[in-house]
Amino acid sequence: MTAAEILLDIVRGYGRLAVAYSGGADSALVLAAAARALGPGDVLAVTAVSESLASGELDPARAFAASQGVEHLTPRTHELRSAGYRANGQDRCYFCKSEVLDTIVALAAEHGFDRVATGTNADDAADPFRPGIAAGRERGIRTPLLEAGLTKAEVREISRAWSLPTWDKSATPCLASRIRHGIEVTPHRLARVDRAETALRAVLAQAHIPVTDLRVRDLGTAARVEVPAADVQAVAALAGVREAVEAAGFAAGGFEVSAFRSGRLNDG
What we know:
- Helix content is 44%, strand content 10%.
- It has helices at 3-12, 25-38, 58-67, 83-87, 92-110, 122-126, 132-138, 144-147, 152-161, 187-206, 232-236, 239-247; strands spanning 17-20, 43-46, 71-73, 115-117, 215-218, 223-227, 255-259.
- Strand 5 and strand 6 form a beta hairpin.
- The protein is globular, with a radius of gyration of 19 Å.
């Protein structure tokens, strides 16, 4: 069996399935696999909406779910009510996922779906900085990509073969992941990161610099803009970059452009 066939076989064994659907490449593949294996009528997509969801993510998520013929629900979640989440230790994702998954599990049950799946893949499970995975295990959440042993590269390969528009989508973790550990997560900090990244995408597009991996890291007293290493010099030279960051609410003067690396804040 091919990797795609193994994935479909695993999902088929679940029966009716609700997918915790963020809109990223991983959960999009799970959603597409469920629609293929079970039929769209036996699949529910659920996207949690809160201050930590980057603007511009929800509309494409809705469009993709519609393209799969799947019902899509967008409940409001309240991660900021959790003291553990706001404290922003290295276990922050545990508190976030607990809130999100509890909401999705309850909503799925209301609609007749007893099983919930996420887009956790084999690379995620090998990452030591993924405390949110524990929250899923505690709740019996299914992880078909992990069960199939699929890495991120294989997720993209299958997605491309299935002509999914998400096959090459850059990772879009929650906005809280941009805030240095130990600095309190607040609506203000989440919003200014979102404003800065949105403005910077426009600046880079105007300069004809491809927008792939982009992060604005909130370091407390300063901001760090991260882009692919090959683009650092070009981005640092753009006059509009500093202005965009400061206009978003970061203090003047505390600013740098550096090479992007996923999970870089975990180094501290």
